[in-house]
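Provenance and format

Records in this collection were gathered into a single text stream. Each protein contributes a sequence line and a token line. The two records reproduced below are adjacent in the stream.
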Amino acid sequence: MSNLAKISIGIGITLAVVIIAGIIFLRYLVTKSYPVTNGTLELSGLHGTADIYRDKFGVPHISARDEHDLMYAVGYVQAQDRLWQMDMGRRIGQGRLSEILDTATVKFDKLFRTLQFSALADSLEKHLHPNSRRLLEDYTEGVNEFIATHKGKYPIEFDMLNYEPEPWTVQHSLIIGRLMAWELNFAWWVDLTYAEIEKLVPEEKYKEIFLSYMENIQPATQKPQTGISSGDIGGFLAAFRDYREYFHMGSFSPGSNAWAINSSKSMSGKPILANDPHFLISLPAKWYELHLTTAGWNVAGVSVPGIPLVIIGQNDSLAWGFTNAMLDDADFYIEEEDTLKPNHYRFKNNLLPMRLREEVIYIGSSDSVEITVRSTHHGPIINDVHPTSQRSHADSMHQKSPISMRWTGFEMSDEILGFYRIDRARNKIEFEEGLKELTVPGQCPVYADVQGNIGWWTTGRVPIRGKHNGTEMMSGNNGEDEWQGYLPFEKLPRIWNPPDGVIVSANNQLVDKSYPYYLSTLWEPWSRYDRIKELLSLEKISTEDFQQ
């Protein structure tokens, strides 16, 4: 055999060994984080024994001795399956993506630092009901048990970006919840879009566009006269558009459907309920399916990775789903900044200091950028967000009128308590007690129970506004457009056991002009609602009909 042939064979064998070794190594990197789904695990934080059975779809059915062990097990199992997704969610809300993804995400970090979700979560944590705190602390223990015992066996994404997950905290779960609420909120987008349209077309054309859309929704509103420029909001809009595109979230086009029929229309003699939240299909999915059982609990449905409770589902007594209520729960105020005293603004003839928060965004391991987040009593100054600007703070901020944002999601609430009560509810009264805690985003729950009842509510905080309805930019200095509280839960639209035995919810207009309060200007067309009603017009309906 010639030397050339020997060299060729040697090179071939070496390459084969390298390729096989590479394949084995890559397979190890991918599979090392696969969850253990058989046998027994010794977990130090459990009071007793928790049983976890996974069905053929991989859905965990968790049974535990008490609520502590149940929440602990949920934390452990969600971390098994979705730790990377959970870590990305908290990083988005904290404005810490650039630490691992470098310069491409600096504009998103600026966006969420400006919205101050991390500080908001700290405040929310201080206002939690004792039950909510206990549930989240138990869940956090379970997540951290997985993180502590799986060093070197984290999902491959951590290896690819060369970092390890930090311990989970109660605040991280609250950030996940507020981030979901933010992504489901459309009111602020509508307001800013109208402001952009106003800058591009003559006043007559703007009124034509605006009033023709509003004609069958709310009486025409008088445009507030601010007397000053609306400023530059393009940076804020662009940052959020880019954020949705970067994470392949699509546009705001998806809607939600839910419907229920009562016993009289059901072939089974029991109510039937269906819900299609229309979240965009993603990998990993937005939802996390699970089944929870302990004393006082037997609930199955979907949660969100990072939150231990069932959001949409059913228990032994009732079932429920949600559609977006499309409530107008955000407003924008053009602030009058003092020309001689920077970072001060005028309100009712008083000069007030803005709240300033210095933020450092770390980029990779060796770079950083500093920003100053400014807020008034209305909320954060959103047009300080500019995704491309690297100008100094003084140069970039005082050339435009500050625009602040007020959103119900910036205020204190306890949705964890709400879903805790809903998951354990046995009847309408207990279910409503949970609904009262759901303040953001505005939702329309559809309900059915084993007693044959069906119902529909509106949940969420609806601001009682001053002079204007909040669809357009408002003046922040005269006090005419301050919120004056919220509509009581009892005055929000609802339906209970309608005569025709059918309830449909499809992001449609919630009320007619006889309703005395302003809810929104944004609704989906009636087409989906009408089509669902048409398909439910049969005298008797089966679950198979619902599936079709």
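Adjacent record:
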Amino acid sequence: MQRPSPWRQLQPVLQAFFRTQPALMGWGAVLAVLTVLMGMGLLGLSGWFITATALAGLNPTTAILFDVFMPSAGIRLLALGRTLSRYGERLVTHDATLAVVAGLREQLFRGWAQPEAARQLLLRPARLLFRLTVDMDALEAVYLRLLVPLAAALGAVLLAAVVLGSLQWWWGVVLALWLLVTGALIVLWLARRAVVPAARRALATEALRAHTVDLLAGQTELAMVARLTAQCDLLAQADQRLARADDTLNRLEVTAGAAHSVVGTLTLVAVLLGVGALVGEGAIGAPAAALALLVALTVTEPFAALRRGALESGRTWLAVRRLAPRMQPVPEPAAAARCADNHDSAAAIALHGVTYAHPGTTLAVFNALSLHIAAGERVALVGASGAGKSTLLALVAGELQPQRGTLQAQPCSWLTQRTELFQDTLADNLRLAQPEATDARLSQVLQDAGLHADVQALTAGLQTPLGEGGLGLSGGQSRRLALARLLLRDVPLWLLDEPTEALDAATADDVLQRLSQHAHGRSLLIATHLRREAALADRLVCLQAGHIVADVHRGSAEFEAVLHTLRADG
């Protein structure tokens, strides 16, 4: 497949910037141009004023008649205006950029919220974290370090051309062409040469961080398999790659800086010779010559910021290539799409000929699997580990997408084997299920889950901060919090994946009792190998190697026989 052109890849990012904050983006560029123009005007007017004042002081008559107030007022106005415009530029551009990046992060999340998303996150968490942080930060350079400095540089060239053109019109034209051509050539050369080392630097930085995290988090496991030295070697190699990339980029920056210095020097020398000739002919005075010289001295300064943007362009393009595919509008998640109006209202779950194989393998977990669960029915999936119980729940939840067949399901909540909690307040961990829930509603579900008394005993109550992964709660408390989150979301179907695994018998019995109490009127699909969890069900579906080998209902001898083959409590 042919890779899209860089421009087509960049389009979604630029559209996001200018669609989200068009007014702020425009004002940011305007303020950047004003800042540069006022800085050049301040220096030029100051030079003119100093020169004119010195010349006027040579003659008592001209000294008395010379107006010092208007130029002084102009200098003060430009100084204050430059300060205000600089502050406004930073405020407006960064506020707009942060707002756009926040929107892009949400868009990226939505792009990831597709089948296989959670599996990919578990397999390579560092990669997705880098996309969300480092790559998103790199996108800021598109506006802050490329578009805004470009506008400022063009404004500086225009002012210099006007000032020089007021002395000799063709001087302004030649100066503008000279600055535009040389500036563009240097920036384009730098951007082209910096693409590879900047991308290598970004990749080396990611590798360095990932290897460091692996070393710190897995040092016990690495030591047990005698891989600590090898991990340290990987860390050192990533550091060496980073150092080589930095060295290359530094050399490129020095070379481009020297080129801009040469351009600036040649510009200044040419203007000096030109105004010197005009002063010698008596066409202009020394103050006008000083003004022209100082404007020529400052006209190349804005190109320095553009140069820094060109140096980072490789990192920016790498981020664009990575993120652009996920910046396109995405449909609603698959689980929601299957809850269409034409869904069979009598069925909670309906699978017809579903086939699924994990990515990278041709061995199917399910091959033409069919299963019908009526609305309000409680069904337990039982079978040995690897039979496909959790995979079936993931298919119903929409986390996995079948390769063939049809699957319809009611809106559902999924209580996974692992309790997923985040470094946030207890209330915000609950509100993942219902963002608009009030504190009273949160207290109610905590009461229903049997955790309200524990939360009341905490100093901050619902606002108690949890550590990473829910640090601060015991295993039983974490499971009850997950149960409260399940209760908070009002859906007709619950998917329960070993809901009491690793809990002591007393806590497990209490959790199951509360689940049964609040499941009235709901459909349940439970993946389990424990007798106490399967006892919640009215129907047992036995899976073996991805096939249904038994389907029995409560009240039958087969039901009791299958139930007693499961692992006993405790």
